Amino acid sequence: MTGSRFSTQWIVGQRVDLIAFIGGALAGYMVFFMHAGLHWDMKVIYLLFIMLLDTPHFFGTYLRTYLDRQEFKARRPLLLGSLIWLFSGPIVLLVCFGFFKAGVSAYMVPFDLYFLGFSLWAYWHVVRQHYGFMRLYQVKNGERLSPDAKKDTWLMHLGLMLPFVVFALRHPESRQAFGLSPQLPAGFSWEKGLFSACILLLIYLIGSFIFRELARLRRGETLNVPKVLLFSAVLPLHMVVCFSDSVLTAPLITFSAFLTIYHDIQYHVLVYCHQQNRFRNNPDARSHGLASVISKNVFTFAAAAIGFGFLVRCFGCSIQVYQGASQCFTPMLVSKVHLFGTVNSDTLLAAFFIGFPLHHYFVDQYIWKPSKDKGLQRDLKLQPVPA
Asked: Rounded to an integer, what distance in angstroms lies between the CA atom of residue 264 and that of residue 272?
């Protein structure tokens, strides 16, 4: 409901939004505490995370597209053409093989750049989803044409990217990936100067946001409560994780679990609620095919998503694709099959598995655009929104 001073229009409803879209940040703190406070083996936690939550959220994309007969028909060129992403890793390795045969000593540089690009896109994908939720709360609460909307955009993007820059230049494994020494040099350095600049810019952006919102109240204007709560959830989580010294002792690969678990919870709930709106009381639901059957209730939805994640990741674990594979049953010792140079067959399979999230990132850019998709506006119960 919208009062004279406080606007509380939610995407799904107050309880769902507070628990999942905003309160999901608590899961990030919980996983981070498993490392920083309980000192659990984060490779095991990461393996469970990608198997039971992260990979299943890819299934939400497939459910909305490939398994929805009507959606697939409408987006056929995109959905068929985008499958090339599944083979992007092997294609890059083929380029590396060509360099190897040509006698280039740094023949793996293309794959190193490919993996770096994948890592950066993964984080950017998380940032863009949080931005998307912010935009939905702006639209729901009448801020679509607000003069402060662009300032909120800058806060969401820079408020999440600046902590990531600090993390990337502090973590020993990340520093080595950039060709830097594992540890920060003693005394003043350009990295520490950059850290200070990031912190000052964050203070300015957050301070400006608080000042703008308080000024709105003083002028008697309406405060967008869900948007403020979203910022209050996502910004501190990223800053706590990225600025903490404890994160430096976690394996680099597990960093995603600390922040992506919030993203995954948001995505699962949004997709399920979207599907319920799409098919509930819809006499044409059967014409959409398997998507309508799987989306019938939360149990079939969850079972299908977790089943997908379990099968994909168990297979990857069994052939030693993932770090932490020592905890897996690995009957196929593919890492011992030599291909060329320093490349074994596990690298080829890992490159193929990277294609799954890349494909997800790419397709998601096009299927969550309510400003251009009237069907999505209807299924998210939105009014038409600007681009």
From this structure: 12
Q: When comparing pLDDT for 225 and 5, which is higher?
A: 225
Q: Which residues contact 80 (CB under 8 A, 6 or more apart)?
A: none
Dihedral of the CA atoms 236, 242, 247, 251 (nearest 10)? 120
The rounded distance, in Å, linking the Cα atoms of 9 and 130 is 17
Nearest to 95 by CA among 82, 105, 108, 85: 108
Instruction: Using alpha carbons only, give the angle 304, 50, 364 rounded to the nearest 5 degrees.
Output: 70
* 17: number of Cβ within 10 Å: 25
Give the C-alpha separation, 362 to 373, whole Å: 17
Q: Are 59 and 305 in contact (CB under 8 A)?
A: yes
Whole-angstrom distance, CA of residue 256 vs CA of residue 290? 31
- Please count the other Cβ atoms lying within 10 Å of the Cβ belonging to residue 37: 10
Cβ–Cβ < 8 Å for 98, 120: no
Write down the residue that tokens 């997908």 correspond to. Answer: 308
Lowest mean pLDDT, pick from 193-207, 213-227, 324-338: 324-338
* Beta carbons of 275 and 63 less than 8 angstroms apart: yes
The rounded distance, in Å, linking the Cα atoms of 178 and 241 is: 21
Output phi, psi for 295, to 5 deg. Answer: -85, 10
Give the other-Cβ count within 10 Å of 262's Cβ.
27
Q: What is the pTM of this model?
A: 0.92
CA distance 193 to 200: 11
- Which phi and psi angles does 221 have, rounded to 5°? -85, 165
Tell me how far apart the alpha carbons of residues 51 and 35 are, in angstroms, rounded to a whole number: 19
